Each structure stands twice: as structure tokens, then as C-alpha cells.
## 1
Amino acid sequence: MDRRHFLNILAASSVGILGFPAVVRAEDSGVLSALYPIPTNTGISGNIVIVGGGMAGGTLSKYLRLWGGTGVNVTLIEKAPSYTSNIMSNTVITGQRTMADLNFAYDTLRNWYGVNVVQAEVLGVNKDAKTISLNTGATIAYDRLVLAPGLVFDLMPGMTNLSEYEMLTPHAWKAGPQTTLLRQQLLELKSGARTGDFVMTIPKAPYRCPPGPYERACVIADWLYTNGVNSKLIVLDANADILVEKDNFSHAFGGAYGYVVDYRPNSTVSNVNSVNRTITYSDLLGETTTLTAGVLNPIPPQRAPQLIADTGLLNVGSPGPDARFAPVNVLSYESTKVPGIHVIGDASHTTQPKAGHVANQEAKTCADAILRLLQGKALDTNIVTNSACYTPITATTATWLSAVYQAKLDTTTTPATWKMTASTENGVTQPRAALAATAENYQDMIKWFNTLMRDTFI
Amino acid sequence: MLKKLTWLLLSLAIALPSEAAKLSAKPVKLYPGKSAVVRVSAIQGSPTFSSSDPGVLQIEQVSSKSKSAKIKVKGVRAGTATLLATDTTGTHSLAFTVLPPMTVSPTSASVAVGGKATFTISNPAGTKIELKFESSYIYATRSSNTITVTGRKVITNTPLTIYDGKTSVTVYVTVTNNTPSSGLNGRLLASNCFQCHGTNGSGGFDQLAGKSSSELYSELKKFASGLENSDGIMAAHAMGFTDAQLLAIADYFASLQ
């Protein structure tokens, strides 16, 4: 599809004489200049099917076409009509953004990059026939299948149904209706419709977005403080300590910005009653405490979706996170369990964090590797990824966290395996963090978010 | 009684006591290529002047009056020599030491952008040293007798001049843009930058596409080495890459429109 055709499609879908399509109008000329033509003469061909249109899947579909050309057929299966960003969703809870600000359409992937975007759910994978079946009744054949389905949430102890998250005690760790519900409950603390403390939990690592829970604690505590709501913010962390940016978060928790966060590490939750909003946990010494919360926000343990398990991609029987997520070769993100199937993003088990920015880079690595594999070429071993994120600490300040990973051959395993290893180049230890929360970082955060989402979906 | 011939030092490259008495007691220090003017007083009759070793100390000029003369001498090479004045009272001498000159080795060096080279100064006189260089191409610092040069921008033979107050030595530095080790995947490595700098470096934070490789590489190396905003997020990123990877990234963006 050439650019003129693309513009015609967009123009036809808009209204009025000056009806430039929203995507162009919203971003002015920036979007058009960022759209690159799909090459036609790469000599690469194949059918790639991607399941999941999040940060990983969206990026992969774009770069397979941008780098692979028109001979690479890309199908993106996604059950939602558009993507809702988890990044920045904490600022919807505090009312600084709306859900609409987190919404990213698949129009550019579909219309410019020529990705076949299919709204459907995957029922199963036939590994022998190399097909997937959809709830629409369709069966789609693939040369290579990439699963980027994100993750799902466990029940907290004492809970019996996932709907409790949707109705009563939202985790809001996947942005959507639960984000809105948590926002609503926070407003009820302010109006007096509910009283008590805001209690949140953090599961043992690994979980999605390592700094995310601490960020949420900060921005909600800041909101309570600036709105004069007399509720404490209590964090029950299953981990022994703040996992990332410890200096910045402990500084904030301690009252540096006015608010205070009651941080309780080594908290093992034994019961959640979503109706009464009570939570029981024990500390390191085994002492048990029960809290009744005004707002109860449990961030549950997470695992790869059932599709990953059903496809045989988990290390069944392994201890720890290996059993919950899919092990992969980080040079290609091809499953170490089932050849021809790749897993990128939060569902995969690597040494990298589960987060959108690095998922974008995993997808680019995967795209490059798949294009090599389609041509019968050897995999690249000089692989670098980076994880970076900005984190709001108040309504006007933010910090950042950044890590660069180098692919290194780990010869202590049999056989030797490639691992993404925190870089030690230049004698520098990764990750690195901002020295302090600043207003400049807050502005940079907005620019980062906009550019990251554009690199993923536009 | 006749007054004895005396020497008076009028000017010299390095500061020395000017009293005649002390002058005779201690050799006058002189650099090669530098001159000193000595006044000779209380001359009896018609004098002759000579150097004990013209290869070390050369008489450049003599201007005589009735009882005095000004003699300009020049250091030729390192060594000792005596300036001799003969009048009716006999032969009088003034000792000179011509110092070995300040030297810097090597006389030239080649560094990659962001790379470092060192020069060693030998300076027996131990006087204060200053550096002069074109700062857009190289950056140089001195610690004691060692000069450290960091390459900043590609250039052939940019001068670095070392002054010790009276003499100067110029060495030359060539800054190269090393070609990346073959096989590095510039496109995939550079795609690490797209999340913040836009797809293909099209912009968001600074636009990178189409900038020159040497400019990008120089900038990345400044971040990686901590020379620029070492606590910032760009330094955090650049520090995580190898030199060859940074170069491959710079080359890739330079190749884009």
C-alpha cells in the first residue's frame, strides 16, 4: 500500500472538507514523517501470526513489516478492539489522565503497515499442523507463531472468584474498568462515602512493572495528601525490601514530598475478604495482623495466560517463576520447549523485567531473529536490550529507572544458554536511576510515553 | 688601583640574580634557542670575547663602548660553556649551562573518537606548564608530567601545544572514527533508541536520523565516559554499550534519511 492510498483511506473515514483523519490531526506532521514505507524487494517471505496486541505484539507486527517487507504476511490476533496502556494508568487513578488518554488504536498497523489485525480469541494451537483456531471459527496457518498474551492474575488467598477484582477490590494492574473502579473508590474516600485507609499489596517478584506498585503508592498517597483525605496509605510488600529505585522511593515514603507511606516489607498475605475489605497478613516473625481497609487494592501474583500452559510452553515442575512463565532463547525469543513458537513480553521468562518499554525491545529482537530464520540465516548474538521507565512520584515530579542488558553466553548451564545480563560495560553497574524526583523528569516522562507508544503502534 | 672587569646580566630567558658576584659563582642557565644579554664593565683596553664551546653557546652580537660592552649570547644545544672576555688585566669568564629543552613524547598520537592517548613531558626546569588545543577536536588535561588527550571529533593532525612559560612544544593528534567490527547489527542495536527518539530516530527526544556518524558517536562516547551529564538517563544508556556497538548505532542513524 502506498502513502497516497493510505491517506485516501484515512480521508474517506473522516468528515468534512478539511477532514484530515484524527491520527494526522492529533500529531500534526509528526506522525506522517514517522511513517516509513514498507520495502517490497527484501526477498523475505513467510506467514507470521502474533497473538496479543500489547506493547510486545504491537511492536513486533510493525517491525516485521518495516524490516521484512511486503513478502512477510503478518496477522495480529487481539481480543480487544484497541490497546489500553498500563503505562501511565496510575495517573488515571489520580485523575490526571483519562482512560481515553491510554487508548491506542490498531488503525496504523492495519492501514499503513498492512498488518492483518483480527479481533478474536485464540482457542488453541495445533503445533503439528502449525495452525491456530479462533473463537470466530477461523483457522489460521503460520510458519512461525509468536505469543505475546501478557499475563493473568491469581486469586489472592481467601478469594474465590476473579470477579471480586472487577466488582469489589480492584487490582487495576491491567488498565481498564478496574482502573476506573479504583479511581471511583478513591473519590469515595474523599467524599466520605467510604472511610478507612488505602491498603495495597505487592506480590513477590517477578511481576509486571517492578517500580509500578511503589509508583502507585506514591501518587495515591500524594493525592490523598493534597486532597486533604485523612486516610493512610499502607503497602504490604511480600518482598523483603523495595525492589528498585530504593533511594527515591524510601525518600518519598518518608515524607520528603509531604505525604507519608506506611511501608511494611516481608508481608505474607493469608486472607483477603473482598466484601468486608479485610486483609490478614503475617510478618517475618510470623505475627499475624488483620486490617480493615477503606480501599483495598491487592496486586496479585501473576502468571502467563492459560494459552501458554495449554501450548506446553511452561517449565512444568520447575520451582519459582520458571513454572509460571515461558522460558525462551533470548536471541530469538523462540520457546525452548516448542520449536517454531516464540514468546515475547510479560509471558516470557527472562532476566529482564516485565514492562512495556523492554517488551518493545524484545519484540524488535524477535522481529530481527524471525527475519533471519525465514532466510535460513544464523541468529545474531550481539544483542542489546534496554528497559527504561519514568515514574511519577507526585502530581508534578518524576524519577526514572534504566537498565541495559547484553546477551552473554552462560556456560554454567548444560547446554550453555544465552542470557540477557545487566551490562557492566564502561565499569558501570546497571540499572541506574535518577538522582531525584524533578519537574523536568515529569515533562520527559510525557515525551517518553508519547514516543514509546508511537514507536509501538504508529 | 684598577677596577676589575665585572659582568652584569641584563636579560635572560630565566630569572636569575643579577649581581655580578653571584653570576661568577653560579652558571647562567639558558635554553637552547634562547638569548641572554650580558653587560661587561670596567674593561681595560681593547677586549676580545669568545665562547669556550660555540656549539653550546654562541656569541650573537657585541656592542662595545670605551669601558663596557653588551654581549648577546644564545644557547645552541644542551651543555656547558664559558663566555670569555680578555682585556689587559687578563681573561675573565662567565659560566653558562644550556639546559636540555622541554620535550614531549611521543610527538604525535592517534585516537578514536572518545578514546584516550597520553603524552609525557620532560621538563628539567620545572616551570609552569600550560596547554593549548582546539577544543572541538580534542580535550586535553595535564596531571604532573602526563597529558591525557580524549578524541572528540574526527580530524587529522590537530595541534596540541605545550608551553612552559618560555618555550613551547607542539605535538599532533589525529582523531579517527574507527570502523565498526564487521557483522554488528546496527539496525537492531539502534532500535534501542527508537522508544525515546522515535522510529528510525525520527524524533521525540532529539532526532537522530541523518546526523553524521562522528557527531553521534562523539556524543555517545561523551555520555558513555561520563564526560557529559554523567547522572542523566542518556549516560545511563550509553554506558551500557560497548564501543563497537555505539559506533554501529552512530553509523546506522547516519545512513538514514
## 2
Amino acid sequence: MSGKSAQERLQARAPEMELIREAQSGSRAAFDALVRQYEHQVLRLALHLTGSEHDAEDIYQEAFLKAYRYIGNFRFECSFYTWIYRIVTNLCLDQLRRKKTRREDHAVVLDHSGDEIDVLASVSDDRSFSNPAKELDRKQLGARIQEALGKLTPRERMVFELKHYQGLRLRTIGEMLSTTEETAKNTLFRATKKLRTQLAELR
Amino acid sequence: MNCELAHERIVTAAYGELPDEQMHELERHMTGCPDCHTDRAQLLALKVLADAHPMMEPPANLVARSRMRLEEALDALPPKRWYERLSQRMMNNFASLQAAPVAACLLLAVGAGAGILGGYEYAETRVIHVAVRDEVLAPKPVIPPAAEITNISSIVRQPNSEIVEVRYNQVVPQQMEGSLDDPKIRELLMVASEDSTSSDVRDDSVGLLAAECRAGHSCQAAGIRDALMVVLRYDKNAGVRLKALEGLGPYVAADTRVRDAVLEALLNDTDPRIRTEAVNILEPVEADTSVRQVLHSVANSDQNPHIRTVSRQVLKRVPEIQ
């Protein structure tokens, strides 16, 4: 991405800009096309943060409804990706804050009917974790990681999620969270420091 | 460099955001500082451990469910009124101008100059332009905009032929004859499919459009597929809805919008013939998780016992996707 010139990046964004303009003019088909471009990323982020299909679905619904209502306000000053992620991260932060008081341990993800899905069981593993004892260790490890992540503040959790799991640049994270790159960096430092302390005995 | 700064740079470097010159400085510090070395090893271990809680791709039925729910919510929103759209457009234009002040000033200056010059020349010369009408050639039939068509009065297909005669009313009754492949004829048929005054006209037009789709003729570029989906969702006549459903059948595997519309019909249509036909049409995609979910719901709760039985048979026929 960094190797592309500004012109190349603009050309790559041109079809999306047309879609956005059409959506701003009221085209439902154009908005639906935008939804399809981003829905997997939105759900992936919401699902990983909340651990619940039901909550992820609610965040998806609220995010795209907000996008539909306010797409007229989009001024092309940033990418649409950043804009939609800004909406999603704010909704996820609200959700994390609400959940913070409950402090549930999510060893697994919940599906829409509330049944548990074992995340780690659904991940194929071709390393030496193929025997039941190691499988149990891996599940317990995953549970400990989630517990440690749950102890971060919502903002620390969000920055760590966007940096470590989504691989976004700190500058982009700052834009999404309506803050500066420096603040995002400091938040990442605090998050990693806390996580290292909590996971010290696992190493 | 002190250790506190080094700790921060270790984190930045581990996530690929440290500039090269600072990386070099950090490496020099690390060679003489065992604490920072340990710090880096701990951070790398943390990254590995964090991957024990991996990102999951959202399941297909979660995506389908979320999309359907969003579409229902968007359909329920009232459309924006013309003054809301106009004010939004004006706000967007104003915002664009704000972002380009030099261009805006130039545009203003050019516009003002052109206006003054044009007014001066008009006042000086007073040229009268006369429009020359071409009355020699017979006027070609031009399809008026849909808003000028009051209704479609009849649709007659010539036997054993692709030629269709569509009678429509504007201010003066008009008619047009042409092939089913003619885009103008198709456009008129799509207008007819929305004619709320006559179910016979809608029935004829939807039947012809659906037949074109089933025959594999171009069914998307002209918006025919969309028109059929609108008919399936909203037409009050069950016979017309059934024809629209049959026309959409060939696209249920390739087009998820068509699939969603058929699933919606299976769940919500009041006519049991349509719900039964929907189950049959979904056969190519029986193994799809969203389809199975809807079939489960129908198998348990549909009022019609035949439909419940058919749904259960379909579910038994195709093994569960693991």
C-alpha cells in the first residue's frame, strides 16, 4: 500500500467514490453495494470484541443504519473505510463499557441462540496441538488471553484489537478513534504493559 | 536513549511502526541492555500468546441474518422528501466549495464574467433564433418518461412470435409494437408490472418478463430481475407474485439478493402456493445455512401442514453442513 502513489490510490478508490456519491443521492442499490464491501470486516471486528453473535449482529445493524442516515455528511476527507470503522469502533466501545461491569469470562463465542461455540475448536491446527491434552491447554490459554483482554480499559482493548488483530496503522487507529497517532501509540503501550503483567506466569 | 524510551520503541518496532533510523538506535541500546532485551522477548511472547484468541470469520448464516435484518430496517425507513434531498445536496456542494476556496473564487469570477458578457451582447444585437422543426421525416416512436405514461391498457403477444403489442396511455392513447428483446418494449413491460389499476396488465407483463428470465435472456442489465423482486414482495395479486417467483428461479443460486427475496416469500407470503413453489425453487441451494435456517423455521411453524412436511423432507434429504 505504501508503495502506491497518491494517484494510484485515488484511482483505486474511484469506483467506491462513485458508489458513495450515488448512495448520497439516494441510491439504495449503491448503499447495499457498500454494505457488501464492508460487512465481513465489521462483523469480524464486532464478533472478536464482544464474543457474541447476537451483540455482533446488533452492532452491524446500528453501524450500517447510522451510515445510511449520515452518509450525506461524508465529505471524502478520509476513506470510507475509516469513516465506517469510526462508527463501528464507537459502537464497540459503548458495548465494551456496558459489559465492563459484568466482567464475564468468555472462554467461547456465543451464537445467536446463546449456545457456545468453541472458537479454538473451529481453528484448524496442523502443529503438535493435535492431542487432547494439548488441545485442552490451548483452550485454557485462549480463555486466559480473553480474561486478560477483558481487564483492559475499553479504549486500550480497542487500540490493541485494531493494532494486533486488525493490523491497522497507528495513524489510522487515531483517525478512527478521533484522536492523534501519539495518543493511540501511548494507549497501545499501556495495553501491552498490562497484558505482559497479567500473562507473565504463562510464559 | 534511556530504557523508558526504549520500552516504548520496542512496542512500536514489534508492530512495524518504528522508522528505520530509530530502529538502528534501538538495536544499539539493546546490545548493552539485558533488561530491554528481556522486555522485547516478553513482548514477542505476548504477541504469540494473543494469537491463541484468534479472529473468526463470521459464519455465513450470521452474515445472511444480519443482512436480512438490515434490509428490513432500511425498507421500513421513510424515503427522504424532495426538500430534504435538495438541502442535503446544497450542503454537500457548500462543503465542497469550502474545501476548495481558490477554485470556488475562480468559478465565481468566471461565472460572473460570462453572465455580464452574455447580457451585453444580447442587449446590443437582439438576435432572434428560430427553432427549425423537422416535419419532413415521420416522427420516430419515442418512449415518453414513465411519469408521462398514465397506464398500460393492454399487452398482446402475437402467437408463435417474439412480437408484443403494448398499448399505453399518455395524453393521447399510443401503442407500440416490437420484439421482446427491444429495450423499449421491456421498459414498457416493467412499467406495466407496477400498474396498480389493472391486475390483468400486471399479470401479462410479469408473465412475459419472467419467461424471458427463465429462457436465459438478458435479465439483469435492464433491471428486470429487480422489477420481479419488487413484484414478488409487494404485488397484491398472488397469481402475479407466483409468476415473478418462477421468473427468479434460475438466479437463486448465483444472486444472493434473489435468494433472500425467495426466503422472505417463503417466510411471509400469505399464499401457500407461493410458499410451496419457494421451497421447490430453493432446491439448488438447500445446503446453504441461511436457507436451512429458514426451512427449520417453516418446518416448525408454517400454518400449512403440506408446507411443513415438504420443508422437513428437504431438510432430511441434504446432510447438515459441518
## 3
Amino acid sequence: MHSDAPRIQRRLRHRRLVNACMLCGAGACALLTVVPLVSVLYYVWSKGHSGINAAFFTHLPKPVGEPGGGMANAIVGSLLMVGAAALMGLPFGLLGGIYLSEYGHSKLAATVRFAADVLNGVPSIVAGVFVYALVVVPMGGFSGLAGALALSVIIVPLVMRTTEEMLRLVPRSQRDAALAVGATEGRTVLGAVVPAARAGLVTGALLAVARIAGETAPLLFTSLGNRFWNIHPAHPTPALPLQIFAYATSPYDDWHVQAWAGALVLVTITLGFNIAARIATRGRFHLT
Amino acid sequence: MVTKESPVRPVLAARRWWSPARRDRTFRGTTALFAGLLLLLAAAIAWSLAHGSHAAVVKFGWRFLTSREWDPVADDYGALPFIWGTLATSLLALAIAAPLGLGAAVFLAELAPPWLSAPVSLAIELLAAIPSIVYGLWGVFVLLPRLRPVQAWLIEHASGVPLFSGAPIGTGLLAGALVLAIMILPILTSLSRDVLNAVPKSLREAAYAVGATHWETLRGPVLDYGRAGLVAAALLALGRALGETMAVTMVIGNTPTISVSLFQPAYTMSSVLANEFSEATGKVHTAALFEIAFLLFGLTIAVNACARALLWKLGAGGGAAVRD
């Protein structure tokens, strides 16, 4: 027994050393995770803010070589398409989500839940291919309508699942109380359950809108992009992410500056929506 | 024959027709309709992709999956370079991101005090919301210029290794994988952190009670308990990586070749769709792209279904925390 003591001591020192190394390693991992992400934000700000001025929000793109110009058309195009997609997709997702949460024990509900999860995992570019076949080919050309439809295909399963999760957080007793005072099922859901989950539903909607506002891939061959104004739903429509892509892959320096400025606007919008959503729920719900 | 109808009666009749029970049925039916429409949407997507790829399936058959040709002039198409590029970049990205994400999750869940872990977690979750195109922009103008000297050095000093052959142009498999790794780190970290947080306290306390160090506790009972949840998190992140389009397209070089070199330009399934779809001329070219979209659709569904099945099997266990 006596002779074992130093060995055990050594072993313990070794184990403590391993422990310290591994825990430091975890800290280093956390640092390494944060560094590139901070770098992205830093460069978006430092390279983008010089391109932000009044002209950026009010002017059309200028031809190569001419200084100035902006992305006003792309910003308006994005607003129109994202707005139309939200108008089409949010009610669809909301009603479907109500079904999943309030009548969710049927076989249909289980299948829909699975389908929504599967669709949420499908790459957004596939939504573009789908809408290309569904709308662009029959209509004979790229259009803002097709772009909005592609975005709404992405938003529907997303909103359906968050709506379900948010409604499920409303306690059973709230429904029972409404039913007990004679409300019908429909009135119970619309008058008691949905209002109780309002903050969560708003959060889900904001996050979904923020998500599609930054989507580029599904617009590439649905709305295509446009260097001029267009608010006609049947014509190619510009969008902020598309314009950033076009400028970033061009060989011109002043277009690169515009691309960074566009990225700064896009990041501000998406992060703004995300932060607003978090404030709306004030930590009451956990969303990933 | 004039009878004075009571003004109340038609109202009552209408009331009866539009009775509470009928209203409930209508409400329920409406919500069920929209839920059901989602199934229709999923089926329509699958059908339209399959239908669109018909001409290519007929012309190439199984050869499409094994051929390296991608020749719009000769109208000869094979998907192998794109499948290779997608799998290589995604798996490489996961190999880079998984240890980092797990380490960061350990730090956030176990080591950091709340005043540090809460804002860092929030920041990481917010970063998951940054659009792909922004990561692409960063990749092109920040990552690539810094990658070139590293490449040049490696090519010069390790030229014998096939992994490091090629020209130091920056774009290529490695650049694509790095950008992807950065993009999946937030989801990987926050899902893994949730898994670690869901491990019951009693398990740790039991390990501490028998004298285990913090690391031994983590490596033993905590990882054991959370293993399936962590695997599911990795699969969900892999699903994201497989379908990621814009950022990869901007840095991968977009050349349909198959090479083990990290510095050779490559091409992914989503990138070829992004680059060629709107300009595809000819029926077979379009059909080949549709078939690639269909393959990508199937691949991501398979990966996500595996993750879901894993979580489902776990039920209320460690995986309950993992949702995306």
C-alpha cells in the first residue's frame, strides 16, 4: 500500500494535466468558432460602409466605369418579392400549423409533420428548379411572380413547424377554459390559443421572412434579376442578393464596393429581424 | 296565400345551418386542407423534378451517375464530378467543423460562466442567420487572398503529396470546404450545446463522486448519453452543407473535374444548377440539370431522414433538445 502512493500521485497529476489540456482545447475551439464569424461581420462593415450613401438607396445601377449608382431597384424588387412570398406563405403555414398543433393526432398530421421536416432540409435551390418547371416554363419567361413563389415554397414548411411548436406551448387549461364558457373549437383556437401564442408566432414569422430575404439560389432562375426598375409581376425582377452576386463575381472594383455595401444592407436587415424576433419573445421561447 | 313570415325565422334557420358544429367542422377542415396541401407541394416537387429529368434518364440511364463527361456541345452529360464535389466538400467541411463545434459546445455548456456563454451563444445563433451570399462574398475577397500564400507554400514544399498538387489560385475544394465549415459551425455548435445541456445532472454527479476529472466525466458518461444526439446534429449540419449553394459556387472554381487535390477547382451539384440552369439550351441539357436537382433532393432527404430517425428513436432522451 505504502509503495503505491507515489504511483497514484503521478497518475493523478497526469489525469489533471490531461483534464486541463482538454478543457483549454475546448476554449480554443470556441475561440476558433467565433473568429471567422466575427471576421465576416467585421469585413462586411469595414468594406461595406463606405459604399452606403443616399444614392445607394435611390439610384439605379450605373454602367461599368461610371461612378455612383445604387441598388434602389434591387431593394424594391426584394421588398416586393419577399412581401408577396410572405403574403402567400404565412397564412398557408399558419393554418397548417394550427392543424398540426390542435388536431395533430391523426395519421395525416404525422405525415404532414414529416413532410414539413423533410422540405425544411431540402436545399433552397431545389425550390427554384421546382418553380422553374411549374411557372417559368409555362409562362415563357422569368418573372417576379415566379421568384415570390419560390420564396414562399421555402417559407411554408418553416412557418408550419414553428406555428405548431408555438401553439403547443399554450397550456391545455387555456383551451379548456374557453371551451368551458361555451366557445366553439374554432373560436377557442382563434380567440384563446392563437392570441396566447402571439409573441411566438410573430417571432416565427419574422425569422422566416428574414430567412427568405437573404435567399439567392431560388431566385437565380425564377426572377433572374434586372438592371432596371421593374414592378410588373410577369417580368424579370431584381433582388438585393442577386445584385450582390452579380457584382461580387464581376471583375470591377467599384462594383465590388457596391456588393459589400449591399451585403451590409442585407446583413443589417436579417440580423435586425432576428434581434427584433428575440426581443418580441424576450427569452420566453427557445428557437434554434 | 300571403302568410306573414316572422322576421326571426330565416335568421334562426340560417343560424341552424351555420351551427356551431358545422362551424367547427369548417374550421377544422380548412386547417386540414392547408396541412394537406403541404403534402401536395412535396409530391409536386418530387414529381416535377422526376418529370423534368425524363429526357436525360432515357438517354443516359445509370451511366449518368458514373460518367465524368459534361459536354453541352456534344450533349453528353454525367453527374459524377458534381456528386464527388458535393460529397467531398461537405464531408471535408464536417470533418473540419465537427471537432470545433463540439469543443465550442463543451465550452459553452460546461465551462463558460453564464455571463460569457449567454452572449456568445446568442452571437453564434445570430450568425446562423447571415445569408449564404454574404459568406460567399467574404470567401472571395477575404479567404481566397489569404489561402493563396498557404497554397503556394504547400505546393512548393509538399509537392509530392497528391493532396497538395495544383496551382495556387485559391479557388478549389479546400476553399469550398472551409467556407462550408464556417457556415455550418453555428448550427453544429448550438445543436451540440443543447444536447450537452440535456444530459441529466445526476450522471455527472455520479462520475464526480467516484473521483473522475471534468474531462473524464465528459468523455465517459456525458458523451455516452449524448452520442446519438450529437450524431444527429452532425447529420443535420451535413444536410445543410450538401445543399449550400451560393457561397460554395463563388469559391470552388466551378470546373467539373475529379481530383483528390485540395487545391484543384471542383464543382458541386448545387453550383452547376446555379451556374447553368438559366442558360441551359437544349432539351437534354435542361433534363440533365433537372436530374442533378433530383439527385440532390434525394440525397438531402436521405441524410435528413437519417437524422430524424435517430432523433425519433431517442424520443425523450438526449435528442429531444435537437430541433432545427
